[in-house]
Amino acid sequence: MELLERFIATAGRAGAQVVRCLDHVALVDYIVRHAGGAVLLPNFASGRRLHLAEALRDSGCEVHTEHLRTAAVEAAAGITGANFALADTGTVVLDSTDEALRLASTLPPCHFVILDPRKILADGLAAVGPLRVLHQRQSPDFIAFITGPSRTADIERVLTIGVHGPRELHILLLEGVSDDPLES
Question: pTM of the predicted model, to two decimals?
């Protein structure tokens, strides 16, 4: 429980909205209320397990599961899982080798991440083991470490949110989705 509280606090300080969802119905409801339009939904383990595409569509949400490159131009939000998270920085870690995951997590102005609280690790040192196993299992080309919404201070050293990625990051905590740090 201490890791969870620490993660919620540090992710919040980084600008993320962290929401505890009691069940998948509450998760779907939250996404529908906050997406602001069509969502990109790539194929990932937690999304399949939750039958997320069907649940979102049944709730009236426009969901794109194919041709995400084309759909990304007008999508309001993207949804992904996370391999694990780091409590000390409020960071979610995602093997985003699959282009569809990169599109959903970087192009729309809003990014929803589904995270099982059991996948929260203390810090980067605790992540060494899962990262090694991930690299041995496959050769990931892209590992995204996402801490809060996209931010930059490149322009006259003024902090600007959302220039190089989503302006909003919503981390949706849902127990029982997956405790496997090798799947998102």
Answer: 0.90
